[in-house]
Amino acid sequence: MDGDRLPVGRRVAYWRGRRSLSQQVFADRLGKSKSWVDKVERGVRALDRVSVLQEVATVLRIDAAVLLGRDIEPAGLVERDAGVERIRAALSRYEVPLGRAAGGRPVLPAGQVARQVTHAWITFQHARYPRVAELLPELLADVERAHAGDPAAARVPLVEAYRIAASLLVKLGAPELAWLAADRAVTAATGDRALVAAAAVQLGEVLRASAQFRAAKSTVLAAAYRIAPPVVEFGLPPELSLCGTLLVQAALAAAGDGDVTAVADLLDEAAAMAARVGDGHDHHHTGFGPTAVELARVAAAAEGGDSADAVARHEKATARDGWRWLPAEHRAAHLLDAARAHLQAGDPIGAGRVLLEADRIAPAEIRHRPAGRDLLARVARDPTAPTTLVHLAVTLGIS
To answer: Tell me: the pLDDT tens digits for 14-30?
Structure first.
């Protein structure tokens, strides 16, 4: 049987035949009518609920995903956990300070590791999280050795590699380990205001992911105001991008803490800087600009429980030209916030539509990120969920 081409109903009929079950016996075991089975097998009636798909699969003694012509992919979870453990091992090596042998690997020049770090950033921003998890262990070893050999030239790549590690680990649901990576980034950056501000972006993410909202706000504001230009109009785009991104982080932390007034003030301050930077730039890998600030307003509104405002702002923000210029990772992460807002508003259909768009833009955001899988499970359980989304949930082993 070519399972990838047959519709679901035909697969049901195929496996029912393989199990030597008549339509009536099969219907009795399901607690359905023979007419219901016949309509399913002819494609007149869709199997569009996770619970029904699983019941049918149970009676047929097959995995539910087989009905969709795919392999179950809890491998996504296994792959994610394995990636986290590889990064944990890399952060636990301490080869340089303990003078351990590098295992025969040469010490690479700073310029070469800088190019590797740039490649890792691009891979992360394309939301290829499993690939980044593969790259990071050796990349961290390379930048640490390069920094030991040439501290001045390899300092920036070292900080940037730790930033990537922290962001990825937050995505993969390992905030405690992400905290270690972010802390190392800040420590390595000490003495350079721009580098400290860049590292503080990830530190803010980690603290928020750990529900340390007040600490996050305090930390990122301190970094923001250290790099803020005396007059916004005279600020350079790179420093405005860092300062504005940190203000956004502070606003999201304030939203988590329930401080509505601070949220509005901080995002308005960030918007003034974003207007000077414009959309379509990615200074210090922040993606900062007017559209990024508007997306932050959506996230803050959703965090504050104002789902109607969040949904309305989402529709306007994603209609902007700047939306298309943001990295795939940034857009897909925002779509999770928007899906959450739709759910809060009692609109699972809207949430499902947004999640499918996120899966189109950056599949790993749904398939490898715990927050994405959780949202998918919540939407797929609703009787009105889109059939395509239900199929995706079953394929991923999510119920």
So the answer is: 888 878 899 999 999 99
Tell me the CATH number for domain 73-210.
1.25.40
Condensed to tens digits (0 to 9), the pLDDT of residues 38-47 reads 999 988 888 8
How far apart are alpha carbons 225 and 220 in whole angstroms?
Answer: 9
C-alpha pair distances (Å), 356 with each of 47, 210, 331, 341, 350: 18, 27, 13, 15, 10
Give the span between the Cα atoms of 391 and 380, in whole angstroms. 9
Tokens of 147: 């920094």
Q: Distance between CA atoms of 248 and 246, rounded to whole angstroms?
A: 5
What six digits make up the tokens of 354?
């947004």
Q: Identify the CA nearest to 373 among candidates 362, 384, 364, 382.
A: 364
pLDDT of residue 233: 87
For 391, list phi and psi in degrees, rounded to 5.
Answer: -60, -40
Alpha-carbon span 38 to 344, nearest angstrom:
38
- CA 332 to chain centroid: 7
The 3-state DSSP composition of the chain as helix, strand, coil percent (nearest 5) reads 75, 0, 25
pLDDT band at 4 (very low <50, low <70, confident <90, very high): very low
- Provide the CATH topology of domain 8-68: 434 Repressor (Amino-terminal Domain) (1.10.260)
- The amino acid that residue 126 corresponds to is H
What are the domain boundaries of the chain? 8-68, 73-210
Q: What CA–CA distance (Å, rounded) separates 182 from 346?
A: 37
State the distance between the two ends of the chain, measured CA to CA, in whole angstroms: 26
Please tell me the distance from the alpha carbon of residue 237 to that of residue 274, in angstroms, as a whole number. Answer: 9
Strands (E) in the chain, as ranges, are none
* Category of 214 on φ-ψ map: left (φ > 0), alpha (ψ -120 to 50) or beta: alpha
Amino acid at 128: R
How far, in Å, CA of 332 to CA of 338, rounded?
10
Residue type at 92?
S
Domains 8-68 and 73-210 share a fold: no
As given in the structure block, the two tokens for residue 30 are 């399901």
